[in-house]
Amino acid sequence: MRRLNWPAWLGFLISFFAFFSYPLLFVNWPITRDVPWANIGLFAVAAVLLFIGIRRAFSPGGRVLSKIVVSILTLFSVLTLAMFIFVVFIAARQLPASLGAPQVNQKAPPFVLTDTSNKSVSLTELLSEPIDGKPPKGVLLIFYRGYW
Fold it and tell me: Could you tell me which residues are beta bridge partners of residue 120?
């Protein structure tokens, strides 16, 4: 009686879910977007299942067709992981820099923003207010994404 090698198939499906869930689901939250630990964990689970599937297919008495199918599933899963690593960790760093953004050590243009208490604050105002009797050397801006 033929038995389905479910660990290999499940590992294959989880590896594809790990690849496609990053841009469709996990990129929405900073905790999983900045370091894709959830996707790496899914790939690890897929690798364990594929390993179990390979051992099961290549056990004594295993059929040739099962060995071929499991080898192909494993190959596609490894290629999926390689593509994920390339896209997330390598290709994302090659995005072009914003041409309008100030460069390092370049003076920021004058601007007025509202703070967390809806008070307007200008850059020139911050640079002109003395701190402990000394003029400030610079201003650190922290931009929060989201809502208060």
Answer: 114
Domain with 61 in it: 6-94
The string of pLDDT tens digits covering residues 5-43 is 999 999 999 999 999 999 999 988 888 888 899 999 999
Residue 20, domain member (yes or no): yes
Which amino acid type is present at position 80? T
**Number of domains into which the chain is organized:** 1
CA 54 to chain centroid, in Å, comes to 29
- Give yes or no for a contact between 69 and 38, defined as CB atoms under 8 angstroms apart: no
In a domain, 67, yes or no: yes
In 3D, which of 4, 135, 21 has the Cα closest to residue 80? 21
Model pTM score: 0.66
How far is residue 15's CA from residue 13's CA, in Å, rounded to a whole number? 5
Instruction: Calculate the CA 36 to chain-centre distance.
Output: 4
